[in-house]
Amino acid sequence: MKQNYDRFIFGLDHRNKMLVEVSKGCIGNCYYCAIKKAKGDLKSRSIDAIISDIRSIYDPSKTLFLVADDCSSYGLDIGTNIFTF
């Protein structure tokens, strides 16, 4: 059991990850979720801003993660999506 725990905890180490936030908030109104109440409507960042952040922190030895409160809704508020560019 301890071996599985150690493997799980190792995966949570942020030293080997690059995290770039692509949006905040949410478009939904799910009764079980507080994201919209806490952070408001979806606010996506421009692709140029995201790419700029990636360039400023890029390290080929790390894994890049694009993160958001509601990743599937990225760009709906600005008429784009992550696959456009």
Query: What is the 3D shape?
Result: flat
Q: Beta-strand percentage?
A: 15-25%
Number of strands: 3
> What share of residues is helical?
25-40%
Oligomer: single chain
Contiguous helical run count: 3
Radius of gyration: 16 Å
Describe this entry's structure for a reader.
There is one protein chain. With 85 residues, this protein is an alpha+beta fold. The protein has one domain: Transcription Regulator spoIIAA (2-Layer Sandwich), CATH 3.30.750.210. It is 31% helix and 19% strand. It has three helices and three strands. It has helices at 2-11, 35-39, 47-57; strands at residues 17-24, 43-44, 63-68. It has a three-stranded mixed sheet. The model has no long low-confidence stretch (mean pLDDT 85).
Write a brief structural summary.
This protein is an alpha+beta fold. It has helices at 2-11, 35-39, 47-57, and strands at 17-24, 43-44, 63-68.
